[in-house]
Amino acid sequence: MHYRSTRGTELSDSPGFADILLSGLAGDGGLYMPEAWPELSPAVLREWRALPYADLATETIGLFTGDDIARPALQEMCRDVYGTFRHQAVAPLCEVEDGLFALELFHGPTLAFKDMAMQLLGRMFQHVLQQRGQRATIIGATSGDTGSAALEAFRGLENVSIVILHPEGRTSEVQRRQMTSVTDGNVLNIAVEGDFDLCQDLVKAMFADEAFRREVGLSAVNSINWARIAAQIPYYFRAALALGGPDREVSFAVPTGNFGNILAAWSARRMGLPVRRLCVGSNQNDILTRFLLNNDMSMRNVEPSLSPSMDIQVSSNFERLLFEMLDRDAARCSAIMKEFRATGHMAVPHDAWQAMRDVFEGTAFDDAQTLEAMKTFHDQSRYLADPHTAIGLATGARFREAGIPMIAAATAHPAKFPDAVRQATGLEPSLPPHLADLFSRPERCTRRPGELAAIEEAVRAHLHRA
Ligand SMILES: Cc1ncc(COP(=O)(O)O)c(C=O)c1O
Ligand SMILES: N[C@@H](CCOP(=O)(O)O)C(=O)O
């Protein structure tokens, strides 16, 4: 399998999986996409119904790794990683209301869906870096969950340093402590004065600084890295196949921020899974919903919300969908994305927008509606949802159609957001035993202004110490 950039101007043609795993973002600022989509027949999908999660993940992800990670090695990684999840089914389905299912993706070590991919990425990086005799410096931006998942997956690894930028004061306390209590020597946490979009822009700016990129051996584990998306595809197959696919259509509802998780669902559809609708759920930062309604993607200030992991205006993976909807015309895709960054507005060609609307729905819930949804799902169905999951379920409920299972991504454990859960239900969710002492663990974190030079300096100083 080879890859190409959504902006199409890369000099080195057709990198393979190991190359794009380590580089993360294409040199031209675009995002890597597979050169061709694997296509799966209904017969193959029926065979996949019987596979345990780790083997289904091996089959799916193996389509993207090609020969760069030998199949037995990939299978061993998947079995090791998913064998440690707290639920035997890894990503179980729970019917919350008639025809409305929660696909629980939070049974990994850091209690959010990010573990589903990140645990595997830790193993893949180690494997490829050892094979190549290289080191990498991973830089990630987080609104709370990617950071903790990445630190857990990469802490203590010999050939990797990891630096995570989070927006100061804009994560839940549990999310912050999950990051800042990781004090291994290869880890640096930076609290940035600004919001998540600024953190993500800083990461992209470090990638654009060619000299710095080479100097530190920069890698990314945000969902700008295709490997993250690839490892998030299997659970959509698993859920749909468990509910009658490929002989029955299903729909998915996904609480959405950076657009990575729903892009993974779209990818499963593109590979042959019969999926009827993909429903984007937003909080009051509803840029995607407004776009889907009016073909008008206009940036506004980010408002802090009860679902902080979705407090975002620039959804990086939207570029991948746009690229596909423009029939892979990289020049047009690049021009539209550059215009968006320059003006803060984007309207896509009408046929591309219509093609998105044929599949995608969007709706938004402000904080009051989120709390109401959390209370209703708890009172009526005894389902305790974190604010992000509640938005996913409420989105699913809004677009549910008779006879078609609606599967909502349950993206975080309620204990990650105890304040919102208490406010909505009066309940005090408890952390699982392995995190029971989280509030008494020492924290380590560096504060920096949201300026490229200050962040690059902090990274250099960290590498010098390590
Ligand atoms: C709990 C939770 N839900 C939803 C999202 C949004 O997912 P995505 O960024 O893939 O759209 C995130 C962050 O990514 C998250 O941490
Ligand atoms: N909500 C995310 C933001 C980054 O998302 P990613 O999937 O691109 O890593 C977070 O939890 O940090």
Q: Would you give an account of this structure?
A:
The chain has 20 helices and 15 strands. By secondary structure, it is α/β, with parallel strands linked by helices. The protein has a six-stranded mixed beta sheet. It has a five-stranded parallel beta sheet with strand order 8-5-6-7-15, with helices on both faces. β9, α12 (260-270) and β10 (275-282) form a beta-alpha-beta unit. It is globular, with a radius of gyration of 20 Å. 55% of the residues are buried. The model has no long low-confidence stretch (mean pLDDT 96). Bound molecules: pyridoxal-5'-phosphate and the ligand N[C@@H](CCOP(=O)(O)O)C(=O)O. The site of pyridoxal-5'-phosphate has 15 residues, from α12.
Name the assembly state: single chain
- Radius of gyration, whole Å: 20 Å
Largest sheet: spatial strand order: 3-4-14-9-10-13
Q: For the report, how would you describe the main beta sheet?
A: 6 strands, mixed
Count of β-strands: 15
Helix segment tally? 20
Give the overall shape. globular
Whole-number mean pLDDT: 96
Fill in the CATH topology of the domain at 83-110 and 228-425: Rossmann fold
Which CATH architecture of the domain at 83-110 and 228-425 is right?
A: 3-Layer(aba) Sandwich
Features:
alpha/beta, Rossmann fold, 6-stranded mixed sheet, 5-stranded parallel sheet, 15 strands, binds pyridoxal-5'-phosphate, binds ligand LJ64HWYM
Short summary of the structure?
The protein is of the alpha/beta class. The protein has a domain at 83-110 and 228-425: 3-Layer(aba) Sandwich (Rossmann fold), CATH 3.40.50.
